[in-house]
Amino acid sequence: MPELPSVSDFLKEKGMARLNTIRETNQGVAEGLMFNIQRYSIQDGPGIRTTISLKGCPLKCKWCSNPESQNPYPEIMVRKARCNGCGKCLDVCACGAITLNEDTVQIDRSRCDLCMKCADVCPTETIESTGKYMSLKEAMEEVGKDELFYRNSGGGVTLSGGEPLYQPEFTLNLLKECKERALSTALDISGYASWRVLDRVLKYTDLVLFDIKHLEPAIHRKGTGRGNQLILENLKKIVDAGQRRVWLRIPIIPNYNDSEQYIEKLAEAVTKMPVEKISLLSYHEWGKPKYESLGRDYLFSDSAPPGQERLQALKDIMQSKGLHNVTIDY
Amino acid sequence: MRAIIPPLALRWHDGMPRKLINKAIEVLASGMPQPAIFNDKVNILRLVSLGCPIKDANNYSINNCMVPTIPGKNFNHKSDWATGIPVPLCLNYALGISPLALIKRGGDKTIDPATLSSVDELLDVTVENCKWLAHQLTLIANIADAIYQEYAPRPFLSAVIDDCIERAQDVRDWNYTPDYRDIVFLGLNNGADSLAAIKKLVFDEKKISMEKLVKALKSNWHGYEDLQQMCLGAPKFGNDDDYVDSISRELGRRISEETMKCKTNRGTPVTVDGTTATGWWSLGRLCAATADGRRAGEALHDWSISPMAGRDKRGPTAVLKSVSKVDPLMTWNHLLNQSFMPQYLLGHNAELFAQYLKTFGDLGIHHIQFTTVDRETLKDARSHPEKHSSLMVRVAGFSAYFIDLDKNLQDSIIARTPQCF
């Protein structure tokens, strides 16, 4: 009987060498995986904030401007314009995944095992690893750096993503720790998580930023890869409990949820919800270059962002339905 | 009034009327680089520590762009000498790299790269060189002062300064205590960034040898491009990173201490001042390549405490934190320039900007002034991305470096950015 190949060899052969690294790094990790820490963050809650963006999301929105936020493991981003063709990455790559094409680096992602050695040696930051594991202590050190700014401005800490509820333990502990230091906390979520998880973290959350992508389950699934039943149920539970400040965030996506009829329907659905603020967030295409650096296709390239006039018209519709807390945000 | 001269200075304190703050932000948002903001919390204390009576210190004002003055008092009108010493020049000279004949002539110190045992040793020698230059310049200034006093009285100015008429003394003769004579140091943070790169790459990680680095600097990085990239990747001032901020603090304090040992003809200490004018550009042309990754002849960081252009990547709060660590009271009269996209000063964001300014005050930073990023800057970033690598574009839940965006997207942002004055 022929011997079975090892799992790791099998994955390598099938062009999924990266899964080996992911399997190893995900075992027993008590740390948080984040792709960005943004200081002087002024769009994700009141005041001057630090936004910690956790990597990994159950939704795969086609218009996502942070595609590096979706997968729950570190990835390689390649900004080819920075490459000087030095070839150092070739020397350290054990998978033979890297070639130079006209003095510019080229990565065959089916061979890459995400060991990140190329990113370590790249002198020009052409190849970068996105996604960094951080302990609770390290994250709190980072959060503490701008404490004075939070206090003066009524700001605080926002956990965003990706989906912070995708790393429930880390999110819970970080929020707890923030509350222990009397820092104001906000949670920016898609709402796609079990209530058991959500209920626990809400205790340590002052403000919830909650996205509504679409009210129709089928259309929601088409745009994001998941249905919306869980999301809408969770929203109702949060609002009904009435203990947390809630800001709704409505991404306005062309040819998806930007029709007058839909916005009217949305206004009717949220009109009785005691939310503090409803933000209309315009779709934008600035995330497009990130898709290229991740070696993925941008599926949304033929859509133009809605202009200011269009957003204003949609805001007016919501206002005419009695919603006076709608703002156009960036 | 959209005039750049005379420069406007705004004294920042906790009791400022909200209307005044709002007005200041409105002017800044229009693209004017004014008003420059001076923090009472540190300026008054600093003047008192120089020996100024508290009553006079409370009444301070700003002469030209940076020099503290006391209206009606003979505080800074006696001498006329100020010049700049680039800190990186002193550091490079310590390593035997310098194109300048000026400091080859005596007193100065160099160290053999092969025997260098720690970055502290290099810092010591750098400070020695700064000290030597400060003493030489003081000597020249003292001679100039004596000549001015004898041959160039200032009768018009004397007429408007308290006590000159009563005492029948020219401003150059009448001795108000203290007086203010300064020496300007430039490129402090190029010095700190260079020392941090040496500390990290040569001593902590032992990735490169000091001899090789000196060779690379002497050849202006030609043939050592990988070394240059490594140095550029070392910690940089302006990112709230203690690794390098602590070096900047040590260097700044030591230089200030040594400079205060220089005495004017009246026996009062010479202070360090941040009035760099355009020296960071013109004196940068004299400086050879530096270990922070800068090439020969390139500008130093702007003004006296700003991070090197394009190397502060953690946003404006991190810059303030870094600057506050350099001990504004014990070091010098620092000039910090910050650049913002106009959107940060408009509408709802103006309120947050006001709170950012309040925190600037609380952190005890000496001074700040602003430029707003205008279309020309963005166009320059489009064609010279390497000079603008820290320029961020942010909207909710998204941020990216401007230089990484598509050319088309860059154009659309350029089109939306107002043209500034």
Please tell me about this protein's structure.
The complex is a heterodimer of chains A (330) and B (421). Chain A contains 13 helices and 13 strands. In chain A, strands 7-1-2-8-9-10-11-12-13 form a nine-stranded mixed β-sheet. In chain A, strands 3-6 form a two-stranded antiparallel sheet. Chain A has a two-stranded antiparallel sheet with strand order 4-5. Chain A is globular, with a radius of gyration of 22 Å. In chain A, 42% of the residues are buried. Chain A is of the alpha/beta class and 330 residues long. In chain A, helix 7 links the parallel strand 8 and strand 9. Chain A folds into two domains: 85 residues, 2-Layer Sandwich (Alpha-Beta Plaits), CATH 3.30.70; 242 residues, Alpha-Beta Barrel (TIM Barrel). Chain B has 421 residues and is of the alpha/beta class. Chain B folds into three domains: 105 residues, no CATH class; 256 residues, no CATH class; 45 residues, no CATH class. Helices cover 42% and strands 10% of the residues of chain B. Chain B has a four-stranded mixed β-sheet. A three-stranded parallel β-sheet of chain B has the order 5-6-7. In chain B, strands 3-4 form a two-stranded antiparallel ribbon. In chain B, a hairpin with a 2-residue loop joins strand 10 and strand 11. In chain B, helix 4 crosses helix 5 and helix 5 runs parallel beside helix 11. Chain B is globular, with a radius of gyration of 22 Å. Chain B starts with 8 loop residues before the first strand and ends in a 5-residue tail after the last helix. The mean pLDDT of chain B is 87. The interface between A and B is large, with 42 and 35 residues.
Question: What's the helix and strand layout?
Answer:
The complex is a heterodimer of chains A (330) and B (421).
Chain A: H1 7-13, H2 18-25, E1 32-41, E2 49-54, E3 75-78, H3 88-92, E4 98-101, E5 104-107, H4 117-121, E6 127-130, E7 132-134, H5 136-144, H6 147-153, E8 156-160, H7 168-180, E9 185-189, H8 195-202, E10 207-211, H9 217-224, H10 229-241, E11 245-252, H11 260-270, E12 277-282, H12 288-293, H13 308-320, E13 326-329
Parallel strand pairs in A: 2-8, 8-9, 9-10, 10-11, 11-12, 12-13
Antiparallel strand pairs in A: 1-2, 1-7, 3-6, 4-5
Chain B: E1 9-12, H1 18-29, E2 36-39, H2 40-49, H3 54-57, E3 61-63, E4 67-69, E5 84-86, H4 87-94, H5 119-151, H6 155-160, H7 164-167, E6 182-186, H8 188-204, H9 210-218, H10 225-232, H11 242-260, E7 271-273, H12 279-282, H13 316-325, E8 337-340, H14 348-362, E9 367-372, H15 375-383, E10 392-395, E11 398-401, H16 407-416
Parallel strand pairs in B: 1-2, 5-6, 6-7, 8-9
Antiparallel strand pairs in B: 2-9, 3-4, 10-11
Helix pairs in contact in B: 1-14, 4-5, 5-11, 8-11, 15-16
Modified residues (Glycine radical) (chain B): 397
Keywords (chain B): Lyase, Organic radical
Domain Glycine radical (chain B): 303-421
